[in-house]
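Standup, Tuesday
Yesterday: got the pipeline producing C-alpha cells again.
Today: sanity-check two examples.
Blockers: none.

Example 1:
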Amino acid sequence: MKRNKAIMSVIMSLLLIISIFCGCNDFDISNTTKPSETTTQTTAPEVTLSDEVKAEAEKTKEEVKSGEDIGTDEPIIAKPKDESTVVDESLIEQDAVIEQENISYDGTNTGKGKALLGACTGLTYYNQADSRWAKKPYTSSKNKTQTIKSSGCGPTSAAIVVSSSKGAILPATMAKLFVDNGYRTKSNGTAWSAWSFVADYFNFKKYATTSNIDKALNYLKTDKNKDGVSDYFIVASCNYGLFTTSGHYIVLVGYNGGTISVYDPYSYVGKFNTPSRSAAGAKLSGNTVFVSEKNFKKYGNTVNYWAFSNDYVKKTTKSKKSVTKYVATKSQSLNVRAKAHKSSKVLTQLKKGTKVTVTKVSGSWSYISSPAKGWVSTAYLSNTKVVADKPKKVTYKTTVGKHYRLKGKTYLYKKQSLTGIKYEYLPKTEIVVQKHISASVDKVKVVKTGRVAYAKINSYKVIKH
C-alpha cells in the first residue's frame, strides 16, 4: 500500500512538471482569473523604469499632443543600389524561432505602463530601420552590433500594437523597456514571454496566444466597425520564408476578402520582388503588405501567434456649427485625405492661407466641407487668418506676341520640359513668342511653317529692322 502511494506521488509530480513545460500553446489569458486575495504568493518585482524611458515617453506624449505624426513616413526603406539592405536582412538575429527564454510575468504590474503612453490616434506603423532609432542599441550583453535595426523587430512590433490600440509609444522606448526587464535575450532577439508582459503592463482588454494559424486568423477576421482594421492585432513569429531570411516578428492588422494586411517592421522597397518571394504575390502599398490568406499560409512560415485586442475607440465629435479656419503650413501645401489617417488617399491639396470650413473633428484630424471635402491634419489649421506667401515675382526677358530670330543653329522641343522630340532650325529662323512657360522657357511658333514648340529664351534675339 505504501509502495502504491509512493508511485502515485511520483506520477503526480511528473504530471505537474510536464504541465509547466507544455503550457505555452493555445493558452488564452482572457479566459483565466487572477489569484484571490487570500492566496499566498511571492510578490513579483516592480517593472524597471529608467529615467531614459520616462523622458522618451514624455517627449512622445508632447509630440502627439501637438499633432505630430510619429509613425514611420513613406517612402519606407528604399532598396539601395548596392543591395546592402538585403545583406542586412540576412544578418538579422533569429527572433522568435524558438521560445528563447522562460521569463515569467505574473501580472502584478498590470496597467501601470499606460502612464508612459501618449494619446492613441489609431493604426500606427513603425519600421525598425527608421533613422530615428535604427542605430540605437538593443542589447543585453553590450554587443555593439545588436541595434534596433539588426534585432529590434520585437520591440518595434510591440510599439505598433500598443500605439495602434492603447496609446503612443516609440520602438526605442519599448526596446529600452524590454532590455531593462529581461525580455531581450543574449543572442536571440526578443523572448516570447515579452508578449504576456506587453498584454498585462499596458492592460489590453483581451489577449490570447496560439500556435494554430487558423485560430489566429479567426481573431484577425473580426471587424465589428467594418473599417478594414481588425478587432485584434496579431503578432506572428516567422521562420525563413516570405518575410525574413532568419527569424522575425510581424503584425497582422486587417483582413478583407481573403487578403491579409500586414505591418512588417522590416519592410523595404523591392523586398517581395525577389525570385524566391515573388511566387507569394505579396504587394507592398505604402507601409502595408497585402498577401492572400492562401499564400500567407503557404509561404509565411509562421510558427506562433499572439492576439491583442484593438481597444482604440475613435472619438468623433460633431461641431454644433461649422468653424472657419485657415491653412497654416510653413510652405508646402496641405493634403486633403479621404479618411482621417496619414496613409489614406490624397484627394487634393490646399495652399497656405486657404480659408476652410471644419464640420467635425476626429482625434487629431478635422473634416472640411469647403473649399474641398475631406480630412486634414488639425495641426496645420489656424483659428486666425493666415497670410499666404506672396508668389515670387518672375521677370521675363521676352514679350508675348513679339517676333525674334534664332541666334544660331538651334533645337526647339515638343515638350515644355525641353525633352523628347526636338526639331533643328538654322540661324535667323523667325519665331514669335506665344506664352511664357518660365523665366527661361517660352512657347513659340515658327513663322514660316506654323510649327509650335518650346525654346530656351537665350537661343533667340529681337529682330532688328
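Example 2:
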Amino acid sequence: MKYSLMSLMVDTELKLMKPNFIHMSILNDMGYKGENPTIDEVFEFLNAHGVPMKNGTMTFEDLVKLAKESGYDGLDLMSFHFEIPGAQAKEILEKYGMVLSAVNLIIPFANASTEEKYQVMLSRAKATIDQASEAGCHNMLLMPTVYSLDEGITMEQSFHNLTRGLKECVAYGNAKGVTINTETLESVGVSYCTCGEMKRIFDEVEGLKYTHDTGNPIVGLEDPVDTYEMFKDKVVTVHFKEFGYVDTDQAKVCRNGKKVDSVPFGKGLIDFKKHLQLLKRDNYQGYITLEGSVETEDKIEGVKESIKYFRKMETEL
C-alpha cells in the first residue's frame, strides 16, 4: 500500500505565515475584535488570554523531507497548511521524489446565504484547485460544510447550496485534472453524516468521488466497513483515523448521545486490519492517509512510528 502523511499530524510544528480558520474560530470565541490579524498577533492574543500557543519552525520542505525519511510515499495537505505557490511546492516535492497525494479544503457552501457569499467561496475553491494542479496534485477532498449550520439555514437550503458548490467544483476540477471528492462529516448537525445523506449527494452531483474516512461513520452510528462497501466504487482516497469513546467537551456527539474523538491507533473502535484486507481485495491503487498517530512521546516520533505500525500490520494479513 501507498501511505501519505497528513499535515495535521504535525500541525503545531509547522511554521505558519498567516492565521487559519481554526485560529480565527478560537479568537472569535474569546471575543477578539480585531480584523485581519497577523500570525504573530494571533499567538500574542492567545498567550495573553491563557492559551499557550506558538508558531512552529517546520517549513514545507522540512515537512516533505520528514515524510520521505519516515517512509511515506506522499503528503496530504490541509489547504491552510499549503501556503506556498503550487509550482514551488512541485519543485520541492520532485526534489525528494514525493507527491502531493491530496489537498483538503473546507469551504462551507452549505452556509452560503447570499449569492455574494457563494461567489466568494467558489472563487476561493477554484484558486485552491489551481494551486493543487500547479503542484502536480490530482486529488482534492472538498468539504462543503462545517459542523453546524448558520442561523436561518435549513437542512434543505444547505443541501441546495452545497450540491451547487460541489457541482461547479467538480466541473472546474475536471478541467484542471483534479478529481474532487468528499467524505462523511463527523457531525450530526448537518445532513452530511450518514450513508443515506451521502448517497443523496452522490446521486445529485455527477462525477463526485469519495474519500473513505475510517472514523467519521461512527458518529452516524454506522459501521466504517459497511460504509466502505457501500461507496467502494467511488473511493479515490482513504483516511485511516482512530475514534474511541471519550467524555470531553471537544468530543463529537454521536446520534445516540455517546461521545467519540481521536485516540491513538490501536486504542479505539476501528478495525484497520479488516480495512487493509478489503483494500487489497479490491486492488486499491490510491493512497492511505494517516490522520492520527500511535501512542508516542511527541508528534515527530508519532509520524515515524505510525507508518511502521501499518507496514507491520500488512505483513500479518
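Quick observation on example 2: The two ends are 13 Å apart (CA to CA). The mean pLDDT is 94.
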